[in-house]
Model the fold of this input.
Amino acid sequence: DADVTQTPRNRITKTGKRIMLECSQTKGHDRMYWYRQDPGLGLQLIYYSFDVKDINKGEISDGYSVSRQAQAKFSLSLESAIPNQTALYFCATSDSQGGDTQYFGPGTRLTVL
Amino acid sequence: SQKIEQNSEALNIQEGKTATLTCNYTNYSPAYLQWYRQDPGRGPVFLLLIRENEKEKRKERLKVTFDTTLKQSLFHITASQPADSATYLCALVQSDYKLSFGAGTTVTVRA
Done:
């Protein structure tokens, strides 16, 4: 089984809808991250969490919110989706003792019409 | 402003040759730098980490150098193979442990 899983893998939705992307990990890592990737751009950090009680905004948090339900689960919500949120979304984990090597999930391709 | 720049052009090379990718940065003071590989439609996979006090790191056919004076890292794939075709991302890690990624360089190795 994959160490970092994301659901759904693909989602098409309409402007104004609320969307939740979920991430689960079995690596036992304390740190979790959400990124978005657009063609020709690097991965941009949306939110990150260094433990269950710690949530921090990244470079592009506007329009997004997150919830760290447990050490193994970190979900990303788009409260009211808009077309420029169409992108590939990745969840990642890292171990604070491991040089912050990041382990990525398979990604969620989100299309907002 | 902070910026990370990787080779702007995609790299096309013949099998067996060495691919050299660059990662230049401005207005960062990275504690260390990482390189990842990303295949189409998949998440990045970690390859190598090099610290600010290290000049060079090797892993099998991969070699990374890090010059904090030039603010540059070079990533080499020696004896390249078609299976090395992918996009390669550099990422800077600063003291707050967040990663900042470059846009990546796409490498295609021709048989």
